[in-house]
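Before relying on records like the one below, remember that each one covers exactly one chain. Contacts with other chains, cofactors or solvent are not represented anywhere in the record.
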Amino acid sequence: MSVAARLADLGLSLPPVAPPVAAYVPAVRVGDQVWTSGQLPLVGGRLVETGKVTNPVDGAVPPGYVSPDRAAELARTCALNALAAIAAQVGSLDRVKRVVKVVGFVASDPGFTGQSLVINGASELLGHLFGERGMHARSAVGVAVLPLDAPVELEMVVQIA
């Protein structure tokens, strides 16, 4: 089954490549690898949510903050943007031989330590789309702030067949 068909099974499709918000390109191909720039949770060229990730208190997340579950959804959006940048470099995601590395950055409230669970939103999507080829090395890092006050940012390295 093609990656596009697996996306469709999830009710998803690749978005247009997110335009850079500064002086860089969305992805660079070097030999048989494609390295993406950090991808924000942009939809239609707009950041869909801002704020730091924090655990809910009494079931609620304070204004200006994002729940870990919502942040995991945003990490999935970042992964889709990274995949769009990769597809623009190589033509088809079916050419991805292996997802090599994912690095996720989570704008975190000082007491938040669930960065790995947030980035699972991206990792689980990659596993579904690519199966064994989607199993990757990964870092999930908590940071004070991200560009445009994004809650999450993701970069990816893939090997191309």
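The radius of gyration is 15 Å.
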